[in-house]
Amino acid sequence: MTLHKRPRTLPGMLTNSFEAPVSRRLARSPSAAGGNDPVISIRGLRKRYGDKEAVRGIDLEVGRGEIFAFLGPNGAGKTTTVEILEGFRQASGGIVEVLGTNPWKAPSGWRERIGLVLQESQAEPGLTVRECLELYAGYYRSPRPVGETLALVDLIEQVDQRATALSGGQRRRLDVALALIGDPELIFLDEPTTGFDPSARRAAWEVIGGLRQLGKTVFLTTHYMEEAERLADRIAVIAAGEIVAEGTPQTLGGRQVGGARITFALPAAATVAELPACLLDRIQEEGGGLVALPSTTVAADLHALSGWELERGLELEDLEVRRPTLEDVYLKLTTDQPRS
User: Fold this and answer.
1) Count of C-beta atoms within a 10 Å radius of residue 182
2) Predicted TM-score (pTM) of this structure
């Protein structure tokens, strides 16, 4: 195993293929978001490559039992940070503790407590589902029972099939079983649904939500904002080597209190100057007769507009109220930062 390329197959690694229905909304963990038992704790983390500082003194904490999403564009320092947490790279400065230990100096028993979930892996050639699990269970001193693990991922009927003969969905469940056989406390999910179609992605979310139900802590990296919003208890965004925002999916970057944007088509019989005086200093003309109104008091502004149109017997066409999406916030946070 090297620092630059992690092996394609390790106990607990997941791959990209899954087919199963999503039957329910994924529940949040009651112990998530800032509990008193941090699984990951970073203070002033720095990583330098020659003259380039890829990670610039970041602070981060992940509580036990939560799903934590770590977002950032390519080159932001995200992969470097994750590999330091996994013990594959040494920090240049700062304090890093994962499960109470510095990952770079962690003893062999520490690795049994984490699961590395990569985007790709290959089935063990020639082995059945049972044999795969028995092989991987042998890497651990206290593995989860094979039969119990098979039941968790619904592979009892496929137990004697060769792993290479499984369908895509069954193969995904086997990968989950391999991730769980060591009964890890912390699981790193690295871009788990890259290349999935929408149906397969939602099915994979069900699997990840199941990890929460088992009491696992999940550190998720993804480029899909909907995935982060659906799964994560908390999110941190890294850009140019620094954490630029941290919060819940609902509050990240001031999303909840940052206001909305009201747009509408101005009636041909009216001009912008005739709109309610209390709104004029915020009105933005967008061309084609469209008008935009940034608003942090949506109800009051809509009341003013509706009163204005009723008084004049007019109708505001194409009226829309839009709040910033998580993707809007992410793009603003990452594009406003200079690249390191």
Assistant:
1) 23
2) 0.74
